[in-house]
UniProtKB/TrEMBL annotation:
GO molecular function: oxidoreductase activity
PANTHER family with a match to the protein in the record: DUDULIN-RELATED, REDUCTASE
Lineage per the UniProt record: Bacteria, Bacillati, Bacillota, Negativicutes, Veillonellales
The keyword Transcription belongs to this UniProt entry's keyword annotation: no
Gene3D superfamilies: NAD(P)-binding Rossmann-like Domain
Keywords tagged on the record: Oxidoreductase
Annotated protein name in UniProt: Pyrroline-5-carboxylate reductase catalytic N-terminal domain-containing protein
Domain Pyrroline-5-carboxylate reductase catalytic N-terminal per the UniProt entry, residue ranges: 38-72
Length: 189
């Protein structure tokens, strides 16, 4: 599978590394990326940068799996999210690109956990995935087969709201030095 990742930071590289480990072809791009988009597109950028990417590639995103990893944290106050309380970044993205298959994933895991393939000393990294498209979640799981990560279906796209709240809590704890940026929440199943 060909995967385009917008974002070349820690998260983009950690996610891309797992796709590459699973045998996928990964292309990295910035906000001004001009190449052809892959079958799957990962938005590994701050939430504030998403609109310009969606605007520039709206037609190309139709029919593609779009993976939103953002946590729409208010970085001015670090005390809330910048999306409506009854919505999520993923839901807002889905409204802007209605023909895309939006999946919320990777936002509840830190880059170190994705790179290591485990949370803490031994718990395997589980990627939660929420989407209204069962096929899109299945494609994400298939694209990661062989990476060492597992994907757990977290339900419909409306579950992204709770996932973003969990991501925000985890970021807040790490920023407050209560947990490590290489740790975080583990899903035991």
């Amino acid at each position: 599978m060909e995967i385009t990742i917008f974002g070349k930071g820690n998260m983009g590289k950690a996610i891309g590394g797992n796709f590459e480990k699973a045998g996928q072809k990964v292309t990295y791009g910035g906000r001004d990326f001009k190449g052809a988009l892959g079958d799957m597109v990962v938005l590994a950028v701050p939430y504030g940068a998403v609109d310009s990417i969606l605007s520039a590639h709206k037609e190309e995103l139709a029919g593609k799996v779009v993976v939103d990893i953002t946590n729409p944290v208010n970085f001015d106050t670090f005390d809330g999210l910048v999306v409506p309380a009854d919505s999520s970044a993923a839901a807002e993205i889905q409204k802007k690109v209605p023909e895309a298959l939006v999946v919320k994933a990777f936002n509840t895991t830190f880059a170190g956990v994705l790179s290591a393939g485990k949370v803490g000393e031994k718990e395997p990294t589980v990627v939660l995935a929420a989407s209204d498209s069962a096929d899109a979640k299945k494609k994400l799981a298939q694209a990661l087969e062989g990476s060492g990560l597992s994907v757990m279906d977290a339900g419909s796209l409306k579950r992204a709201r709770e996932m973003e709240a969990l991501g925000f809590l985890q970021i807040s704890l790490a920023a407050g030095k209560k947990i490590s940026w290489t740790g975080g929440f583990a899903v035991l199943h």
